[in-house]
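Z., the sequence and structure:
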Amino acid sequence: QVQLVESGGGLVQAGGSLRLSCAASARTFSRYAMGWFRQAPGKEREIVAAINWSGRNTWYANSAKDRFTISRDNTKNTVYLQMNSLTPEDTAVYYCAANVGTVEVSLRGYDYWGHGTQVTVSS
């Protein structure tokens, strides 16, 4: 079992930045590919970014490219999502997820999920 706890969400004005963190309980955190997802009210959960076990390979949704950066620190069992140039369209609950194996872009590819952290961007 892997427990994931997100933090760093909050209220920010459009154009601002936030850094989300996801702390994992797994002893073998470096075995897991990690993903950040988000779900806005009335919408389906969608992937934002993903990173492989070493951090060398990353993947971004078009909406996140050039604005968001996913990274990880395996010594701290933590994955991050740096979000810049935020817009009201980024308002959502953000979830991190873990998968043993390769980077996945589908929700079904992930085995463990956190409870989410709310990000609200005001105009």
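The radius of gyration is 13 Å. The CA atoms of residues 55 and 72 lie 6 Å apart.

Let me know what you think.
H.
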